[in-house]
Protein 1
Amino acid sequence: MADIEIIVTSPSSGIRAIATQSRRLSVPTIIKPLPRRTRQQSLSQTSKPSSWATSKTPQRSLLYHLHTLLLFTFSDIKNILIPQTLLGLVTALCCSHPSTPSAVLGRLPHTIAWVWLHLLVFNTSNQTQPSSQIEDLQNKPWRPLPSKRISHGEARALFYATSALATMLSVGIGGLRESALLMGLYVLNNDLSLGDSGAVSRNALNAAGYTTFAFGAVAILTHGTGCAVTQQGYLWLLLLAAVILTTGQCQDLEDQDGDRAKGRSTIPLLFGDEVGRWSVIVPMAGWTFFAPRYWDCNFQYSMVLLAIGAVVMKRLVIGDKEGYKKTFRLWNCWIIALYMLPAFRNGM
């Protein structure tokens, strides 16, 4: 048995430690000191501040940025992008003269790009508002700002860039008037917070926004095609604005927790859940009866609309709070069914 003394020198502190260990040696044990160069390298590595490694931000790929843009607009794809583009398409095809289906369909990609880009402008403006960030933490924590995918400053820069891009796109493909009107509505809703100040103003702004998107879609689909929407078609778009005005509070049933945190005034929060539900049921029943008669719609499709409306109204009568999200999705299906009515009128 032999006792070995091991002397260890720490490069960073210079402290010498002596350890004694008894072990059986079969050959001489030699402990060599670290080369001078290695010591200097070790000293330089340990002397770096701990924040040095975390000061670099990870590289963000193109796919990362595209995913971020999608998350900004994801909630409105089913609410606005698909329904309003479809409404514009049905109106341009079925409510215009002369009808030029091939020319109208050829402009569908332009229309989708226009609607989505204006949605992105709205959402980058809306989601950077302090009150909206509070609401998103409660209702939609996966959005880019609450999930820390993008900073507030980057989101505001994106808003200004997309606003300019949307204007330039409208100059090129049409819909400039509707684009300017949407920008004005964004200021009223987001910057002046009129959408949070009262239930009536909230529904009115929603109805104006939905309708302006539809008018913009029609304008782009018919731009340069030689066809013009009839007076009946434009009146139909205004009637649909009234539908949104009187039934759009269906979304507020789902968002009550976030609206309460934001301090927003909605019908369910002001008058209670039951009043909120019946404020949707009554006008829905009236529009389900009246809308097919406006277009002299065939009986079969009238029954389809009635069936979808009946499902939504039944769910609202029951008042299943856990199912409000699904109820709102079904309400969107009912809205789309309304949008399709001109294609199913008698004589088409």
Protein 2
Amino acid sequence: MVTEFTGDFQLYCHREAKISKISKTSMLAILEKNDAAAVLHFHEKITADNSQYRGIHPIASLDSHQGNLAKLVNKAIASLPRAAHGIPGALTTIERSGEEDTDMDSGSGSMLANGVDVKKPDFISVTRGPGMRSSLSAGLDLAKGLAVAWQVPLVGVNHMQAHALTPRLVSALDQRTRHPVAPAFPFLSLLVSGGHTLLVHSQDLIQHKILASTTDIAVGEAIDKMARTILPDKLLEESRDTMYGPLIERFAFPGESSEYNYTAPVTREKELARKPSSWGWAYGPPLAETKKGSRAKAMEFSFSGLASATERFVQKADHEVTLPERVDLSKEAMRVSFEHLASRVVMGLNNMKRDDPIAESAIRTLVVSGGVASNQYLKVM
């Protein structure tokens, strides 16, 4: 999704299936690149069922990886593009009797058990981190085995760098029109997921500068924790997923987007002020009430205080917390969380304008990427 702002500034809100929740999801893709265009030959994922734990369980996730990764590879290999004989990279002599080794032009072809000749991958890429070590190890071990068997390079991919660059992959996969890959460098990325919250300045494919990161927990983890506190137990029990962000959004806004009814604060003072509810509670914006306001302008994120405040509002209430109050809590928890994200984007741009006006003027795009980017309320903001 692209939304136009002043001038030609653009916002990309992208929720990529490819690299979300890597700790519990086994995922495999076969991608072929030609100049600026790309073709996705295979893409499939299997997600571990962690619903009984109401969160990601390391052992359950590891068992799912170990039980499913090889099956995915076996299925994916059948989707490798066919090799063409007589050209570099194709099989030129095949002895189907099995008495003679396969002869290849350049070592970049392979033959499946059913006799079909396919192109051998040029390299194997695999998520190397950040993430849960046990889950990462399962993928790394399998990828190393494939790289050795095919005698091709192994490329370790940073999970967050992949988040930042996925919109460019989506652009390259769009074959309907011939156009330069978008977004063009340089651009800002707000990477928001269950494990990470980062504001990144991307200058090219391999040059990325972190402008702000969380000092405690990620925004996605905070929303999951607040959802477990706010949502009725029955709703949580009926959910087959432990990603409670979509669940709390549907609970807060069951209808159309017009229900969001959001108006951005017009001044910094209003942004940092508490907004008392009719129920007697009020969230304090993160970092707004630190000693002498020392961290109010810090280029960092903090969400643990919001999760703790939600627990106090619900568990220490002197009245029964009704369904309408829980709806209001859901809306306010998301509002304060997302305004905190937006404030650091604005501050980051202002800091760049002050310190390096040329670099700031070159940025025309903000990419919002990761699981939390699918939240419609965040897009409204």
